Structures are given as structure tokens and as C-alpha cells.
Amino acid sequence: MAIAVKLDDLLHDRRMTLTELAERVGITIVNLSILKTGKARAIRFSTLEAICAALACQPGDILEFLPGPAGAES
Amino acid sequence: MTRHYSAALPIAYVLLRILILINWLAGVAILALLVLTPNEQWILSAFKIAPSADASRLVMGLRAVAVLGLCTIPINYLILKRLLAMVETVRAGDPFVAANASRLQTIAWALLALQLFGLVIALIGNAVSTPAHPVDLHTSFSVNGWLAVLLTFVLARVFAEGAQMRDELEGTV
Hints:
By secondary structure, chain A is mainly α. Chain A contains five helices and two strands. The longest helix of chain B is centred in the middle third of the chain and has 39 residues, at 53-91. The model of chain B has no long low-confidence stretch (mean pLDDT 87). Chains A and B meet through helix 3 of A and loops of B.
């Protein structure tokens, strides 16, 4: 996938578990896990905003664009 | 709204099952009519019609209509069976799936086929009808039937789009 989700690194840096983040953000751990493993097809601005607020970071800290063939799946 | 659905769905389910049974019974009745009616003479005497060229044509026409009627039985079954499957998906709480779009598409083609059968039957009725032996098969042209075909094709497309949108939404976090 061209967009990588770096939620794992951020959680590690903040010493926070996925369960804690799920509680703070207010979305289910299942959905958060889908996002973390890069299986999500889209992310709502509201989710991004809540994660940024909970982790005190910028959207760019969570998502990263990896140049490669358009539409390529990892 | 929820209460309305909860009553409508079991009724639709039972009604569709009854209609499937009635459809098969109608098929058996038509088949029996075709197989068991011994000969033209018997039919003519049953209808108290004097033998003539017109009367022969009438019997042939009625037999053709019966054969066409028999052909519509599996088409009706196809429609009812798919409607039943759709009702089951609504009961399961998951109606916006690609399978339902495909079912509606099949139903639309089947409805179109039934309309065409209706046209052919009307044509046969007109062809064999004479002033001495008028045939009224109650198959006058109905705009509603054709509208139902169009509506079902449109609905199938709407369902396909809806299923795709739901699919995309499922992957949204």
C-alpha cells in the first residue's frame, strides 16, 4: 500500500496500548486494529483528529506516503 | 418503523412461500390440462362448439396459450425464490449486498420475459378469436407491467451502487 500507517511506532513512543488509545479516541479496538495493520480503506477526518488529539501529534506523524506504483498493494 | 417492518417481513415470507406453492399447483393444473385433454373432438364438445376450421384453430390457439402458460411457471418460481432470498437477507439485517443486486437484476429480466409472454398470448388470443367464438384472455396492454420491469432494472442498479458504497464504508475507520 502507498500510504503507511505508523500508529505502532507512535504508540510505542507514547508508551500507550491500543486499548488505551481506543478508549481515548472513542472508536472500537477492532477498528483501530484495522487502521494499525493497514487494512483500512479510508479514514475519517474525525478519527484522524481524535487520534492526533490523543497522541498529541500531527496527521503526518500517523500517515506516510510511500512512493511506488499507483494502487500497488503491499 | 421498526414495528412496521417486523410485521411486514414475516407476512411477506409466508406469502411468498404460499405463492411458490400456488405457482407449482398452477403448473400441474396446466400440464394436466395439456396431457389429459384427449382430443380436439372432446374439447369442442366440452365447449359446445361445432367442428369447423375456425374451431380447430381455436383449440390449437388455446393449446399454444397453455404451453406458454406452462413456460411461465419456472419464470414465476425464479422471481419468487429470489424475492424470498431477499426477504431473508432483510430479516438477517444485511440487505445491501451484491447478491441482492444480482437477484433484482434477474427478477427484472424475468419480469421482462413475462411481459413478452403476455404479448404473445394476447396475439394468439386475437388471432384465434372469431365473432362466432370470441376469445378474451384478459391480456390487454398494461403500462404498469412495463413500468414494473423498468423500476426493477433501476432498483437493481441502485442496489448494486448501495452495496458498493456499503462495502467501501465498511473499510472506513
